[in-house]
TrEMBL record, chain A:
Keyword Transport: yes
Membrane topology summary: Multi-pass membrane protein
Family label: Belongs to the TRAP transporter small permease family.
Superkingdom assignment: Bacteria
Name the UniProt record assigns to this protein: TRAP transporter small permease protein
PANTHER family: 2,3-DIKETO-L-GULONATE TRAP TRANSPORTER SMALL PERMEASE PROTEIN YIAM (PTHR35011)
TrEMBL record, chain B:
Keywords: Cell inner membrane, Cell membrane, Membrane, Transmembrane, Transmembrane helix, Transport
Family that this chain belongs to: Belongs to the TRAP transporter large permease family.
Protein name as annotated: TRAP transporter large permease protein
Presence of the UniProt keyword Transmembrane helix in the record: yes
Assembly behavior: The complex comprises the extracytoplasmic solute receptor protein and the two transmembrane proteins.
Lineage, top ranks: Bacteria, Pseudomonadati, Pseudomonadota, Alphaproteobacteria, Hyphomicrobiales
Pfam families on file: DctM (PF06808)
Membrane topology: Multi-pass membrane protein
Domain (TRAP C4-dicarboxylate transport system permease DctM subunit) ranges: 9-423
Localization annotation: Cell inner membrane
Annotated organism of origin: Rhodobium gokarnense
Transmembrane segment boundaries: 52-72, 84-102, 173-198, 223-242, 248-266, 278-299, 311-333, 340-359, 365-391, 403-422
Physiological role: Part of the tripartite ATP-independent periplasmic (TRAP) transport system.
Length: 162, 435, 309
């Protein structure tokens, strides 16, 4: 299997499973509260950490699928040379932000390496570590799309990516 | 103050040159943190980036967002759109501009199932734009009616935007949901009124045939299942059976029972596809709101909430003037900026000011959401307008012109709701959500 | 030179007991430093929740914050001791104990090792149960009553051990949940119950007083260590003044808020706590059996000081 396909599968499996587990856990919580008249103390904490994982890995999948919201209308109406300048600028801004995100969040996870969440003791390097992991995946997907569009000449096209 | 205003200018500049909204927010925020790190600091302000992402996503009430998206996704794939459209067409019957009005009515029903305006535009628009064109409506009117009417989605509960406001202001999400019911219906009625007024000049196609009684029964029966879902959500919250997050989980369960048990239109292999799509949509929404928190943190350190509060106080002590200014500000911002991001950045700043003017935070939430969703139907960043134009293969500029009277009607409702708080607060008050 | 700016990050809103207390602390800081300290108050979680604020102090990006003593348990096990039910006789007693040099030494050393310099202790009173079903006098009265619990194992388990059904829930949903009957009640101190108008939705406030958790006011050690000795002195003096001022006002607020609850029609009853203490004792034993040596030493010291040793 191609490495890119493996990465895609990883993103898909993690997103789908995480969301599935979240839904089941919330339903179980409702069941416990109404039918058994009690609550599961660990559910909330597990679920919110799964949410962070879901969103960060899902964001990479969203990048792959061109699902992040942006505004092309105004840029598309400009002269091609100006559009190219802005597109290059925007690409650089995105790369810089993602690098800062990865660097800052990796440091954050590292600084919390000896700590854990209070209810179920998830190590914080793991809980916080999903942020740099997602950042790396998003950056990978973004660079891949950028390189591809440069190669096939659609980098500066006003066609919206499929 | 200057730094704060410069950061907001940078944000708009980045959005306007086509940088993804989440990157624009995060980058402007990171620049703010850089400025902070160059002043007096004892530590590394960039810690605010991972903190904002972690806490901006990992907060229990926000779970309602993926749950309502998933419930809408399942209902959608189970084929409720056709049922709701048929039911709406049947109810509208032989009214003038029948199909245009059915489009609006269908969006109101649909709004009770999804929490997002875009989902409505693609679903209802996907069916009704071609149908309207076939009946002889212009592409412009089809796009204008579809895009404007789908904005009722986030006002009629459930609503992702209400969840975001509730979370960032610390107001009951249940109260906000209930407060949106009457304004949502008013928006729908105002759009129908606009269609009827335009009809006097344009003479839109009118349906003539009648539907046999037997078929009417079938259509009604088919529509009941999807129409029960808003009842579960609103009723569950009103009756005190569930919290909004739990209502989301029940909505998912109901949708699954409907799709797999009643309708039997879904296969096992649809499930991962629906979860995958929901994960992508959730990530796109929540990455934006958590990156908005980075910028919000920087603006807070630069004392923007205090400065803006003092600014409003210096202009006028009258809540009427304050609300007027807020409406103008938000209508403009709503046309440029993503609604969720605007709420994350602005509601913690504006809501406490509103409260100091004696405005109820639930009422203020309805006002903010109304303002920001109206912008979804207008350029430059009007996603509903984009989607509807894309479906009709119409240049956005032409759709933008046709939508103006409808936007006017929505703004009129906005002002009525703004200055007559009773419209938003009567229901939550009656059910004891607001004191 | 320019004044040193100290950002004080809090989750509580401006106004109210704590908000006023923060503003007063700022006044003391500015006064005792002759204006060499500029105080900025960020209420309502504007700069982040409790964990973020504490992380900010460790990092130095946020200079000051306040938290419940139990919140420090996220960084060091020692602090989970404050989650033990019926640990102190009442709030004022808790302040006396944590201010005693023997206890303070252990707490301060641990806090400072984690990046927090404690400058004051605020009395947050006693947390008692309010519910919409009936007055609570014994564990049996709590049977079948759903009480909102916090996201902390000990705080949650103790409520269950006292006889109620513990339901974890985000604070923002609690009012509506009680009002709608999703849960029957919650536990908190009289000022918090009063300011959030829980008297509108629940009629029985029973002074069970199971948790007594004081709030340390903290400055980042990174920040504190970089201040001149003269400013360090000003910070500690301001802390001392704040502790005295806040705790005096708190006692008054508790009395007037209990009266307010009564005026609003809430039935307030005193409780014989013996049966509840007995019900939670196995939890306490279990906790101490598994606690590390440092935590056990702290517990012994607290008990000695509390009982007048
Ligand atoms: Na909706
Ligand atoms: Na529509």
């Amino acid at each position: 299997m191609r490495p890119d396909r493996i990465i895609e599968l990883f993103e898909e499996i993690v997103s789908v499973l995480t969301l599935g587990v979240i839904v089941v856990l919330v339903l179980v919580q409702v069941f416990f509260r109404y039918v058994l008249s009690s609550g599961l103390l660990w559910v909330d904490e597990l679920v919110i950490n799964l949410m962070v994982l879901l969103v960060l890995v899902g964001a990479a999948l969203a990048t792959r699928n061109g699902a992040h919201i942006d505004l092309r209308l105004i840029v598309n109406g400009l002269q091609p040379w100006l559009r190219l300048v802005l597109k290059v600028l925007g690409t650089l801004v995105t790369i810089v932000f993602l690098l800062v995100l990865i660097w800052a969040s990796a440091g954050y996870a590292y600084d919390s390496r000896n700590l854990a969440t209070t209810m179920i003791g998830i190590p914080l390097w793991l809980a916080y570590g999903t942020i740099p992991l997602g950042g790396v995946l998003i950056l990978y997907e973004f660079l891949k799309l950028t390189v591809r569009s440069v190669r096939d000449g659609t980098f500066n096209s006003d066609e919206v990516a499929p | 103050m200057i730094t704060g205003v410069s950061l907001i200018a940078l944000l708009f500049a980045l959005i306007l040159i086509g940088v993804p909204v989440y990157v624009s927010l995060g980058f402007a925020g990171a620049v703010g943190l850089l400025v902070i790190s160059m002043g007096q600091t004892f530590g590394d302000p960039f810690i605010a980036i991972p903190q904002s992402l972690y806490s901006g996503i990992g907060f229990f009430p926000l779970l309602a967002i993926p749950l309502f998206i998933l419930a809408g996704e399942i209902m959608n794939r189970s084929g409720i759109t056709d049922r709701l459209v048929k039911f709406s067409v049947m109810l509208i019957g032989r009214w003038p501009a029948s199909l245009a009005n059915a489009n609006i009515l269908a969006s109101m029903f649909f709004g009770g199932i999804t929490g997002s305006a875009q989902a409505d535009t693609s679903a209802v628009g996907g069916v009704l734009i071609p149908a309207m064109e076939k009946e002889g409506y212009s592409k412009e009117i089809a796009v204008a009616v579809t895009a404007s009417s789908s904005t009722v989605g986030p006002i009629i509960p459930p609503s992702i935007m209400m969840v975001i406001y509730g979370v960032s202001v610390g107001t009951s999400i249940g109260a906000l949901f209930i407060a949106g019911v009457v304004p949502g219906i008013l928006i729908g009625l105002s759009l129908i009124a606009t269609v009827l007024v335009l009809d006097r000049k344009h003479k839109f196609p009118r349906r003539t045939g009648s539907i046999p009684m037997r078929e009417k029964l079938t259509i009604t029966k088919d529509a009941m299942w999807p129409l029960v879902m808003p009842g579960i959500i609103v009723g569950g919250i009103l009756g005190g059976v569930v919290t909004p997050t739990e209502a989301g989980a029940l909505a998912v369960l109901y949708a699954l029972i409907f799709g797999y048990g009643i309708q039997r239109s879904l296969t096992v292999s649809d499930l991962p596809a629906m979860l995958r799509r929901t994960a992508i949509l959730t990530a796109a929404v929540m990455l934006i709101i958590s990156c908005a928190k980075i910028l919000s943190y920087a603006l807070t350190v630069f004392q923007m909430p205090l400065l803006i509060g003092a600014f409003f106080q210096s202009i006028s002590e009258s809540p009427i003037v304050f609300l007027l200014l807020v409406n103008i500000l938000l209508l403009v911002i709503g046309t440029f900026m993503d609604g969720g991001a605007s709420l994350i950045i602005l509601s913690p700043i504006l809501a406490p000011i509103a409260v100091s003017y004696g405005i109820d935070p639930v009422h203020f939430g309805v006002i903010m959401v109304l303002n920001l969703i109206i912008g979804q139907g207008t350029p430059p960043l009007g996603l509903c307008l984009f989607i509807a134009s894309a479906i009709a293969k119409l240049p956005v500029e032409r759709g933008a012109k046709a939508i103006l009277p409808f936007i006017g009607a929505e703004v009129a409702v906005l002002f009525v709701v703004t200055y007559w708080p009773w419209l938003a607060l009567a229901l939550p008050r009656y059910f004891g959500f607001v004191v | 030179a320019d004044a040193v700016t100290l950002k004080f990050s809090a989750v509580f809103p401006a106004g109210g007991q704590q908000g006023d207390g923060a503003v007063q602390l700022g006044k003391y800081l500015e006064e005792y430093s002759d204006g060499k300290i500029a105080f900025q108050f960020f209420p309502s979680s504007q700069l982040g929740n409790k964990i973020q604020s504490l992380e900010g102090l460790r990092n130095g990006s946020i200079e000051m914050t306040e938290a419940a003593a139990t919140d420090l348990g996220n960084f060091s096990e020692l602090w989970s001791i404050f989650a033990l039910p019926f640990l102190f006789n009442d709030g004022a007693d808790a302040i006396r104990v944590v201010s005693d040099p023997r206890v303070a030494k252990i707490l301060n050393e641990d806090a400072e090792a984690n990046g927090f310099k404690i400058i004051a202790w605020w009395n947050m009173g006693e947390r008692s149960i309010i519910n919409s079903k009936r007055p609570v006098n014994s564990p049996e009265d709590l049977s079948g009553i759903k009480i909102r619990v916090m996201q902390s194992p000990m705080l949650a388990k103790a409520i269950t051990a006292m006889g109620a059904t513990g339901v974890p829930m985000a604070w923002g949903e609690v009012y509506t949940a009680v009002q709608q009957g999703v849960i029957d009640g919650l536990e908190n101190s009289p000022p918090v119950i009063a300011v959030n108008k829980f008297y509108e939705v629940a009629d029985y406030y029973s002074l069970t007083q199971q948790f007594i958790i004081p709030d340390p006011q903290m400055i980042s050690t990174k920040v504190f260590d970089s201040l001149s000795p003269e400013l360090q002195d000003a910070v500690m003096k301001a802390g001392e003044a704040s502790q005295k001022d806040f705790n005096a006002k708190w006692e008054k607020a508790v009395a007037s808020d209990i009266q307010l609850l009564k005026d609003k029609g809430v039935q307030v009853n005193e409780v014989d706590k013996a049966a509840f203490r007995k019900a939670v004792q196995p939890l306490v034993d279990e906790y101490l059996a598994s606690a590390d040596a440092k935590t056990k030493a702290l517990y012994d010291t607290i008990v000695t000081v509390r009982d007048g040793g």
